[in-house]
Amino acid sequence: MYSPIPLTKSEKTGVGYWEAYSPKLKRDVTLLGDLEYDYWLFIETDPRILSYCERPILIESSFTSKIITSVPSYWVKYQDNTEAIIKVRFSKVEKSKNGKLKNQLLIEEQWCKEKNIKHCVVNDQEIRSNPLLLSNKKLLISIVSNRLHPIDTDIHLISQILSLKKITIQELKASLDSKIPFLRVTEGVCWMIYKGFIKSSLDRAPIGPKLEVWIDE
């Protein structure tokens, strides 16, 4: 298990940072810059990920007679017990053939190879390709952060109605016949999406009455 490497004063004042609460980790996370925050939304809401850590380790290696250091953006552990180290970068930096970034990626890849861990690089074009999805993930985290656990009776009642057929939250509410207040229907659905119990149209519709949900085969 890893612990986050603290941000330096220069890092905090340079690109800025975010502080957010992680329902998955049950702790606050500190994220360097807007892009790492945006990618955190994907990590936090990915039900395949059991655990993760921001800025998990300082990797050092001698390279061309110099000591090169790099701090990966994230370490993640999946349900199948596989692990990955993730580097978040702007595409313009990747395309600029930045020597420092190239060396950092090389020592990260080598470290991952030695540890038998997957190494991934993601950029802003991938992360920000769907602004609606990002907005929905942010709201999803906000909603599930309001309670430590979902309301079991709500989840049970919602589960009885859901099927392979897509249904909107508005239709779901009507089917429940006022057994659950509308806001709690939305909250219950969000918990089920967050836990990976159901699929949804988060990439196409905002969280609300017109959001479609269904059970995956």
From TrEMBL:
Protein name: TnsA endonuclease N-terminal domain-containing protein
InterPro entries: tRNA_endonuc-like_dom_sf
GO molecular function term, any single one: nucleic acid binding
